[in-house]
């Protein structure tokens, strides 16, 4: 993905943001190269209110801003339904029926590492995308480089908040756990693999093209 060992990290640099940029650029290149007949829009930091399934949320926000009681409305309705995925993959709407807003094809949460206490944030955001959509559900995906199986399994477990976790060093981690991992690490990794919720990152573009 273009992040070499020789690259030094400078003060103020955020590896998480660099990871998001790398995933965005890599996916954009792979999708355009593998399926050029389809127009792919791959971005970073775009609110879901600008996509076809969620444009009604933008209308709600605009109504609240125009209301003289907007503070009261915000307190009553809340704003946690507004989600800004790290990376988005969308497809243009050719019908024009919804104001030309593109369809959100995938919402991707990029986690260079996974803090156990932040796992619920991913679930909360994805649950919001499931509940508030109008139209088909986008693919809900986490991409990570987390090296500890115990942290990966914390997000891989579950039944509906996300489709899969894609690991950028899947083969290396698989070999490392099997070679030097303790019993707990091996059990956690086997659970991840057997659930089929943790997959090699190399399969992500192909999956997005096929579905």
UniProtKB/TrEMBL annotation:
SUPFAM superfamilies recorded: Restriction endonuclease-like (SSF52980)
InterPro entries: NgoMIV, NgoMIV_sf, Restrct_endonuc-II-like
Gene3D superfamilies: Type-2 restriction enzyme NgoMIV
CDD domains: NgoMIV-like (cd22340)
One protein family per Pfam: NgoMIV_restric
Protein's name according to its UniProt entry: Restriction endonuclease
Source organism (scientific name): Streptomyces plumbiresistens
């Amino acid at each position: 993905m273009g992040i070499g060992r020789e690259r030094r990290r400078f003060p103020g640099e955020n590896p998480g943001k660099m990871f998001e940029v790398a995933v965005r650029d890599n996916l954009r290149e792979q999708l355009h190269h593998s399926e050029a007949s389809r127009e792919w829009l791959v971005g970073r930091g775009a609110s879901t209110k600008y996509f076809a399934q969620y444009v009604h949320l933008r209308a709600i926000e605009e109504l609240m801003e125009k209301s003289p009681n907007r503070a009261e409305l915000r307190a009553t309705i809340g704003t946690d339904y507004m989600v800004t995925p790290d990376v988005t993959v969308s497809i243009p709407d050719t019908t024009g029926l919804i104001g030309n807003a593109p369809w959100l094809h995938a919402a991707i949460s990029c986690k260079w590492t996974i803090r156990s206490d932040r796992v619920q944030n991913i679930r909360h955001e994805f649950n919001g995308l499931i509940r508030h959509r109008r139209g088909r559900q986008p693919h809900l995906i986490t991409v990570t480089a987390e090296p500890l199986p115990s942290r990966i399994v914390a997000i891989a477990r579950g039944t509906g908040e996300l489709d899969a976790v894609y690991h950028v060093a899947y083969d290396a981690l698989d070999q490392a756990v099997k070679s030097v991992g303790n019993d707990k690490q091996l059990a956690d990794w086997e659970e991840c693999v057997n659930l089929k919720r943790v997959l090699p990152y190399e399969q992500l573009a192909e999956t997005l093209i096929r579905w």
